[in-house]
Every structure is written in structure tokens, then in C-alpha cells.
Design goal:
With about 120 residues, this protein is α+β, with helices and mostly antiparallel strands. It has a single domain, classed as HIT family, subunit A. About 20% of the residues lie in helices and about 20% in strands. The chain is built from two helices and five strands, in the order αβββαββ. A five-stranded antiparallel sheet has the order 1-2-3-5-4, with helices on one face. It is globular, with a radius of gyration of 14 Å.
Length: about 120
């Protein structure tokens, strides 16, 4: 999509602090991090959201999840991490290009985040 910011990042027309790239994916630092480690992982192929994936996209989705641990470790989150994929308006998806957040880093000081 010509007006999609993540498609422009994937094409290299908008810079991003890339931390990982392969034939299908790009991972880069979030510009407004919520944790010391906050990485976005996007497919190079434009997919609007999880609501629009097809069975043909299953290997790509698997690749995104399979790389999460490697990326989190490389970025300084060896004790664990969180993966979030917001979908649609109710899911608070802000950019209409499928993306996965990897959040981690040292445990914050103060009240613990509620565990699920």
C-alpha cells in the first residue's frame, strides 16, 4: 500500500532503527517505547491485521512468533518478554499493517504489572 507507513519502512523509504531483517520480516525499535525493550516486527508483505490473514499466511505468522525469542534476547531481554498483536479498532490497532510488539527488558521498579 502506497500510504502505509510500515510498507514504507519495509521498502526503505522511511528510516527505522532496524534490529533484525530476513526475506519476510523486519524488526525495528518502537519510536515511543513502553519498556526498555520495545521492538515492532512486521511482515514485508502488506497484511492489514490478524483479521485479514488467510491460511496461506500461516508460515509467515509462525516465522514472526518463532523469531520473537531471538530478537528479545539480542535486544537485552533474557529473562522473558511479552508479545502483543493489536487487531482492529477494539484491539487498539493504530497502524493498519499487521505488526507484533515485543516488550521486555529489566523488570521495572515499583508495583508489579498484573500477571495473567
Amino acid at each position: 500500500m502506497s500510504d502505509c507507513i510500515f510498507c514504507k519502512i519495509a521498502a526503505g523509504t522511511i528510516p527505522a532503527a532496524r534490529v533484525y531483517e530476513d526475506e519476510q520480516l523486519i524488526a525495528f525499535k518502537d519510536i515511543a517505547p513502553q519498556r526498555p525493550v520495545h521492538i515492532l516486527v512486521i511482515p514485508k508483505k502488506h497484511i492489514t491485521s490478524l483479521a485479514t490473514v488467510s491460511a496461506d499466511d500461516a508460515p509467515l505468522l509462525g516465522q514472526m512468533l518463532a523469531k520473537a525469542h531471538e530478537i528479545a534476547l539480542a535486544q537485552g531481554s533474557p529473562a522473558g518478554f511479552r508479545v502483543i498483536i493489536n487487531t482492529g479498532e477494539i484491539g487498539q490497532q493504530e497502524v493498519q499493517h499487521l505488526h507484533m510488539h515485543i516488550l521486555g527488558g529489566p523488570q521495572p521498579v515499583g508495583p508489579m504489572v498484573q500477571k495473567h
